[in-house]
Amino acid sequence: MSVPYALFSANGTPGATGAVGATGAAGTNGTNGLVGATGAAGTNGTNGLAGATGAVGATGAASGLVGATGPTGANSTVPGPAGSIGLTGATGAAATNYTAGTGISISSGTIINTAPDQTVALTGTGITNVTGTYPNFTVSTPKIIRGTSSGGFAPTIINGSGFTVVHANAGTYTVTFTTPFTNTPTAVASIFNLGFTAAQIEVTSTSTTTMVIKTYTISSGSLYASNSLQFSFIAIDN
Question: Residue 172 sits in a domain of what CATH number?
Fold first, then answer.
């Protein structure tokens, strides 16, 4: 067997490094390895900081809805306690005892007319007149107005009512009736002679509403209208 010469020669100087060869094509991926076993649980972390206080929530409704009406309770059959005794009433007024007069009797609280339908007669006196029959009578008295006046230019009423009086002109006075007469009245007048030797008065006219009076003084047989004589009068309905 022949031995190459080179095996027996001394080591020579290394030759220059050859250029790097081009990268070969990537190999195909290998198959996934088996899942490793679950590791031990880690230790708990430290507590986090407390969160900031949240804003106040909106106010809720003022009141809740009205609840449904509950069922009517069953009537109790147990009687309630007896009420207290009421106060004693005030003593009533004493009964009035009536005594029967003539033509009246009283029996068991009933008043009885024992003489019914008696004849009734009414008779007028003076200027009062009665007409009609039972039970419808009419009693009438003529209307009368009378009074006294001071006379003068501003006459006043000394007594009497139902009239006014004014000075109309020299010695003349108008008396006006507050409420007119139904018919023209009959009227008369008189004077008070206050220091005069002679005086006279006359009613010059009358109506249902007024009467006119005139006063005079008398001197040497003549009449003179006087404004200073006090006078009285009376007027009676016809």
Answer: 2.60.40
